[in-house]
């Protein structure tokens, strides 16, 4: 970098470039903090690389404008990226390693799926029901409502929620429930057996008393059957 800059103003240029890098880092870290991004190792590495590229453009622009000798912009861009990479590779690697350790630690201390809580919101985004994932038996759609069946104190209870089945797709998949029919999500841990009736229609029999058998579509049968093996 000193050979590239030349002259007695090397220290000044390096100081200004360091300030540019610091300003870019603060700006992008604030953006990262306020964006709804889930912290993980892969995303963080991608973000660090994006930061380096972002800084490179500003540092290269500064060098290209202040140098007294004519230098092609892309040559300046290459030198700038080398300078930024060598400056940040060690601290970024340490931080990335810390994120990796944090990610593993978080996974190791995550509660079991069966005791994680499921939060159900109505169409107006009001919280209406909170239950542990392991107690949910199945969820069925009824026009503009969904019916949530779960156990509480050994008894089967139900809650009718004004919302669509689509609104709980991610919630169900995140807590181990699987779709078995276009109108039903089911908890595989509560399925006793899959059976066919005389017409060849497949049903899932649950381990709770006084509950209807849940229809299982052919497109979902194989996946659900594998989970029960």
Features:
OB fold (Dihydrolipoamide Acetyltransferase, E2P); 229 residues; alpha+beta; 10 strands
Overview of this protein structure:
The strands form 3 sheets. This protein has a 5-stranded antiparallel β-sheet with strand order 5-4-3-7-6. The protein has a 3-stranded antiparallel β-sheet with strand order 8-9-10. It is an alpha+beta fold and 229 residues long.
Topology of this structure?
Blueprint: H1 2-5, H2 10-34, H3 41-66, H4 73-108, E1 117-121, E2 127-132, E3 136-142, E4 145-152, E5 155-161, H5 169-174, E6 178-181, E7 184-186, E8 191-196, E9 202-206, E10 214-216, H6 218-228
Radius of gyration: 28 Å
Largest sheet: 5 strands, antiparallel
Q: How many structural domains?
A: 2
The total beta strand count reads 10
Short summary of the structure?
The chain is α+β, with helices and mostly antiparallel strands. It is 47% helix and 24% strand.
């Amino acid at each position: 970098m000193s050979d590239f800059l030349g002259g007695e103003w090397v220290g000044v240029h390096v100081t200004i470039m360091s300030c540019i890098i610091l300003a870019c880092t603060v700006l992008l870290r604030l953006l990262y903090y306020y964006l709804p991004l889930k912290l993980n190792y892969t995303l963080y590495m991608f973000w660090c690389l994006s930061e380096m590229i972002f800084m490179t453009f500003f540092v290269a622009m500064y060098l290209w404008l202040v140098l007294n000798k004519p230098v092609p912009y892309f040559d300046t861009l290459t030198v700038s990226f080398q300078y930024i990479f060598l400056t940040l590779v060690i601290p970024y690697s340490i931080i990335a390693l810390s994120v990796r350790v944090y990610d593993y630690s978080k996974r190791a201390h995550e509660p079991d799926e069966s005791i994680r809580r499921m939060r159900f919101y109505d169409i107006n985004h009001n919280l209406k029901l909170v239950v542990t994932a392991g107690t949910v038996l199945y969820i069925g759609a009824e026009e503009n409502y969904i019916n949530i069946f779960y156990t509480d104190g050994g008894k089967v209870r139900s809650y009718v929620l004004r919302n669509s089945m689509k609104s709980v797709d991610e919630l169900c998949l995140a807590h181990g429930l699987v779709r078995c029919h276009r109108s039903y999500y089911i908890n595989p841990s509560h399925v006793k057996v899959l059976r066919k009736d005389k017409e060849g229609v497949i049903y899932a029999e649950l381990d709770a008393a006084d509950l209807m058998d849940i229809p299982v579509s052919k497109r979902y049968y194989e996946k659900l059957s594998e989970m029960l093996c």
